[in-house]
Design goal:
The complex is a heterodimer of chains A (356) and B (288). Chain A is built from 9 helices and 23 strands. Chain A has 356 residues and is of the alpha+beta class. Chain B is an all-alpha fold. The chains are: A alpha+beta (356), B mainly alpha (288).
Chain lengths: 356, 288
């Protein structure tokens, strides 16, 4: 187990990058605390897998350093880093039995057979494959194969970090939940540093202590699920986390109120002059329909998702989502929307601006 | 929907039927006729039953040719398959060099059989051939027209030169289909180079390798042109393989009866071995 430090790290797949747009991963400084569980969240192609492969040593970064507990491993081969990684698509050794697959990383490191047998039995119980140990891995279903890959990643106790690259993509939904719980338990029991790449926010938020949100090759926010929800540092975080995501409206800030299409809305704090492309963001949970106060909206559609209703509305040509409780009547007179002032975030050029 | 019945359609199939009849069915039946009958000329035939077959099976001639043939196929498979795999493993995986190497590797496959034979026939000659002359001036006595071992070596090396590319290209195709994640996982699992080959590359190549073995076996089992051009089956009968012997019997001695019986047995042997291969291959796919 180790603390992993990234120093001025950046990577470009082109040999002679000309500008920032050529970088799959833009300059980054970060410490991954020893024993924490991180989720690396972002949409496809945002550089998550690039970052993961640099940490595991499958890729050598164009610039910067990686330190494991202060030791520079930037150019060290994967084997020396003592890392386990599970890939998006199952990688199993077809001609081996399930047992040999699970034992493979241990045998390659010359562990005694008795220890190998004991670990394989533990891992098999964890992934629920004890009854299949003597089957050949060839011909198993995709999720059985992925469970073997997960098991192979977890079989070594002394790894510096466990990396997961969207490992549950091919797994059945109910099994997903179970495996994720297993991973969390494993983390709790053994305290490995874990980095879990995903584009599924539920997966990220339930798995991790800290979520690292990436956008366009850049880490835009690192925080607890709560921080990501309440104070998204970047409009992408606001939009990406939450279902539906944060409402963003163009605005002009004037002291303690914001001028938005259709009127003004009060803010919780006072802001100085905010320059650039100014927007306010408010989560659908913090918008309320009203008959008398607030901004004029047109309701286009109401989606009932069971525990609450999502109201899709239009505010002077801008989409506005509102989450309303199940029991609230939506009458024809509900033509206005009120924002909760303390929950409004102000953004300039996509980055959050704090109140003065 | 009801089928339209139109017997005119038969006229469209007729040309193919005629072609196949004249090119395959009638010649094959003629061979069968010759195999079971004997003649003293004037197109008068006598029923001979299994006579020709019994004669052939009792004589050493066919057994010797079969022995040489099996030895030849065995040797070239034992060389070409591992060598082809080795070459494929060392071919560049991507980039300009990958294309260059692919083209270079396909070159021997594009050369007609008799030209390959001629190239090696001249290459190995003691008087003017680069190989033969060089070897002899280095003090190594080499003469494929007189020494059976040298003749075999020449024919085997020629076949390896001509066909290893095919195995290499097939194995290369198998290797290219392995996703990078497998190699990455192997690095993380700290697998040695040998284990990567044994547990990742070889299993993924198995399918194409079986095809390569089958193709090379069939082709080498029927080899005629190249040894015929280089050694003519000699010295003595040292490189007289089945098809060379068959042609000698049929066209050289004009023993059509025994030759017909010979070709039928030849055909059955190839059919049998191919069937065995096919069964093994399909079972290999289903296994798991």
């Amino acid at each position: 187990m180790a603390k992993i430090t990234l120093e001025n790290l950046a990577h470009s797949y082109s040999p002679a990058p000309k500008g920032p747009e050529d970088y799959a991963l833009k300059e980054l400084n970060h410490d991954w605390q020893d024993g924490a569980a991180y989720a690396l969240l972002g949409s496809s192609g945002c550089g998550k897998s690039t970052l993961l492969n640099i940490i595991s040593g499958l890729l050598i970064p164009s610039q910067g350093r990686i330190l494991f507990d202060g030791v520079d491993v930037t150019r060290a081969p994967t084997a020396e880093r003592n890392i386990a990684q599970v890939f998006q698509f199952p990688v199993v050794y077809d001609t081996m039995t399930v047992r040999d697959n699970l034992a493979f990383p241990l045998r390659n490191r010359g562990r005694p057979e008795a220890y190998v047998a004991e670990r394989v039995a533990e891992i098999a119980a964890m992934i629920g494959m004890e009854h299949m140990l003597d089957r050949k891995a060839r011909g198993l279903t995709a999720d059985a194969k992925q469970k073997i890959s997960l098991g192979r990643g977890m079989v070594r106790k002394d790894v510096n970090a466990l990396l997961f690259d969207e490992p549950l993509t091919v797994i059945d939904p109910h099994m997903k939940w179970e495996l994720r719980t297993q991973l969390k338990k494993l983390h709790h029991d053994f305290g490995h540093t874990m980095i879990y790449v995903t584009h599924d926010q539920t997966e990220a938020l339930t798995f991790a202590d800290k979520v690292v949100v990436m956008y366009d090759g850049r880490v835009v926010q690192i925080g607890t699920p709560e921080e990501l929800f309440d104070r998204p540092e970047h409009t992408f975080v606001g939009y990406f986390i939450g279902s539906p995501g944060m409402n963003l409206l163009p605005a002009k800030i004037d002291g303690a109120q914001a001028l938005v299409p259709g009127g003004t809305t009060p803010l919780a704090g006072t802001y100085g002059a905010v320059q650039g492309n100014v927007q306010i963001g408010v989560r659908p949970e913090h918008v309320r329909l009203s008959a008398h106060e607030g901004l004029p909206v047109t309701i286009r559609r109401i989606e009932d998702v069971g525990r609450h209703r999502i109201i899709r509305a239009d505010l002077m040509g801008h989409d506005l989502n509102i989450i309303a409780p199940e029991d609230m009547g939506v009458g024809a007179d509900m033509t206005r929307a009120v924002f909760d002032p303390s929950r409004i975030n102000v953004y300039a050029d996509d980055w959050r601006v704090a109140a003065a | 929907m009801e089928k339209t019945v139109n017997h005119k359609a038969w006229f469209l199939v007729l040309p193919v039927l005629v072609l196949v009849a004249f090119s395959a069915v009638i010649p094959l039946m003629t061979v069968v006729n010759y195999a079971f009958q004997d003649t003293f000329g004037n197109n008068v035939f006598f029923w001979n039953g299994l006579g020709w077959f019994e004669d052939l099976l009792a004589s050493d001639r066919m057994w010797n040719a079969l022995g040489r043939q099996l030895a030849f196929s065995g040797i070239i498979l034992a060389i070409e398959i591992p060598l082809g795999v080795f070459v494929a493993l060392n071919m560049p995986k991507r980039g300009v060099w990958a294309s260059v190497v692919l083209v270079l590797m396909s070159l021997p496959l594009l050369i007609p059989w008799n030209v390959v034979g001629t190239i090696w026939q001249i290459f190995g000659r003691v008087d003017i051939g680069l190989l033969g002359y060089t070897l002899n001036s280095m003090g190594i006595s080499y003469n494929y027209t007189q020494n059976p071992v040298h003749a075999w070596a020449t024919v085997v090396v020629m076949d390896v030169w001509h066909w290893t590319s095919l195995v290499a290209l097939l194995a290369y195709a198998g290797l290219q289909s392995i996703p990078d994640a497998y190699y990455q996982a192997a690095r993380i699992d700290q697998a040695s180079r040998w284990k990567v080959f044994r547990y990742i590359e070889l299993p993924k190549m198995m399918g194409v390798l079986m095809i390569a073995i089958l193709l090379r076996f069939m082709d080498s089992f029927m080899i005629y042109t190249e040894p015929f051009v280089v050694t003519g089956g000699g010295p003595g009968n040292a490189t007289t393989f089945l098809s060379i012997d068959l042609v000698k019997m049929a066209l050289g001695q004009f023993d059509l009866g025994p030759a017909a019986a010979f070709s039928l047995m030849y055909f059955l042997v190839i059919l049998l071995i191919s069937w065995v291969f096919y069964t093994v291959m399909t079972n290999l796919d289903k296994r798991g």
